[in-house]
Amino acid sequence: MYKLLLRPILFNFDPEKVHHFTFKMIRVLSKLPLFSSMFRGLYQINDSKLEREVFGLKFKNPVGLAAGFDKDAKLFNELHDFGFGFVEIGTLTPKSQEGNPKKRLFRLKKDSAVINRMGFNNGGVEEAVKRLKKNKGVLIGGNIGKNKVTPNENAVEDYKICFEALFDYVDYFVVNVSSPNTPNLRELQDKEPLTKLLNTLQEENKKKPSEKPILLKIAPDLTDDQLMDIIDIVKDTKIAGVIATNTTISRKGLKSNITLANEKGGLSGKPLTKRSTEVIRFLSEKSNKAFPIIGVGGIHTAQDALEKLNAGASLVQLYTGFIYEGPKLIKDINKALIRKSV
């Protein structure tokens, strides 16, 4: 129904406006008991074969919603009804910020892709915490970043603020230093500043009665040498794992018109499918499966998800594939996993 009826209508309008409109509609419909139970009946699959235990957490199923969709933790309970095993909120920053000027979100229909240069637009971590207090049992990841105005030399403090504010309300953390849409952010992926950042967060983590898993989200544009550095950093800092990958700055092989394809920002969707899987496989093989990996990037079919899991991912996440394929994709992946386990 989504691809045949809803998507053709929604795709005629501005992507960011459609995103906000869709949020409002889901929220309104989910308040009606009939619709909420209908969503769960249509899309949720409860089967022990889907359960996973990864970095000490029990996941109902291995298909999650990637960060960026529910930035401000406004719809995580409702989105969980579509069958996601977990929902990652954010990226959140200490202070609210508008993000980059509009227009900043673009559909590349010929490529089944999206370019975004949102720029960590969010209402600030404290506003998200108010909503997270209303969690109805959803496993939540907290994706954290720095404010645009914070210089890199002070970035650690921003991440610490978000870590402290979210600690009691999320199940795991994701350190985002790989978005291409905040100036100079990706410089924090260099070995020295990244090690310092992760060690600082781990020190804060150890002060807690019970530690929370900390993961690192990396860019698909890293070289093999940089990926080897990531493996060393994970080992040295003893963080829980890696999310591979964020959006890409590459525009290789796009079919869309050159003006649209050359919009600044991070590219997600089908053009990222192969590269994100390559990064997963590289990290898994070169580290000898030393840490869990959440695979994300270009998952538009159940087979795409299986390939990432076969490459070494323990869990997968959707974003652009969810936009293009709808919630049926979550069910398709979980059904494929059940068939595979039989």
TrEMBL record:
NCBIfam families in the record: PRK05286.1-2, PRK05286.2-5, pyrD_sub2
CDD domains: DHOD_2_like
Cofactor note: Binds 1 FMN per subunit.
Species: Aquimarina gracilis
Family affiliation: Belongs to the dihydroorotate dehydrogenase family. Type 2 subfamily.
Domain named Dihydroorotate dehydrogenase catalytic: residues: 50-338
A single MF term (Gene Ontology): dihydroorotate dehydrogenase (quinone) activity
Protein name: Dihydroorotate dehydrogenase (quinone)
